[in-house]
Amino acid sequence: MSNDIKYFIEDLRIAREKNKQQAKTIKALREDGEMLEDALREIKNWGDAYPLQCFPEPDMKKAHTLLISGGLTLDAVSASVIRHTIKRVVEIATEALIKKLDEVKK
Predict the structure, then answer these.
(1) Could you tell me the pLDDT band of residue 79, with boundaries at 50, 70 and 90?
(2) What's the predicted TM-score (pTM) here?
(3) Are 40 and 89 in contact (CB under 8 A)?
(4) Most confident of the following: 7-16, 41-50, 73-82, 91-100
(5) How far is it, in rounded angstroms, from Cα 11 to Cα 54?
(6) Which of 21, 70, 78, 92 has its CA 20 to 30 A from that of 45?
(7) Which of 99, 85, 102, 104 is CA-nearest to residue 34?
(8) In 3-state terms, what secondary structure has residue 17?
(9) Which residues have C-beta within 8 Å of that of residue 33, sequence separation ≥ 6?
(10) Confidence tier at 29 by pLDDT (50, 70, 90)
(11) Domain-by-domain residue ranges, the chain?
């Protein structure tokens, strides 16, 4: 067998191996994308659980007055709500990242 044919066969073998590796990478990226989409969908669903039709925007001046009369401030209540919201978003994102790290370790 001539050297040209040997080199050609070796190039084909290398190309096939690269294609296999690229296919694995593409599959992993698709799985990552699906996992991230799932996490984002969960965040969106969680946010959609409080539609304006059921929970209309309150009269903030009235809420402020009522809260002050009860010894609270609108700022304190708002801060508590946003902390709760961000905490859940972080939990969802962290769960997705931990799932990815567990897959990488395998």
Answers:
(1) very high
(2) 0.59
(3) no
(4) 73-82
(5) 65
(6) 78
(7) 99
(8) helix
(9) none
(10) confident
(11) 3-105
Tokens representing residue 99 in the block = 């799932």
In terms of DSSP H, where are the helices of 1-106?
Answer: 3-48, 60-69, 74-105
**Terminal alpha carbon distance of the chain:** 43
Cα–Cα dist 106/102, whole Å: 7
pLDDT digits (tens, 9 = 90+) for 39-62: 889 889 988 888 999 999 999 999
Residue partners of 46: CB distance under 8 A and separation at least 6: 88, 89, 92
Residue with tokens 């010894």: 71
Q: Which residue pairs from 93-100 have beta carbons closer than 8 angstroms and sit at least 24 positions apart in sequence?
A: 93/39, 93/43, 95/39, 96/35, 96/36, 96/38, 96/39, 99/35, 100/32, 100/35
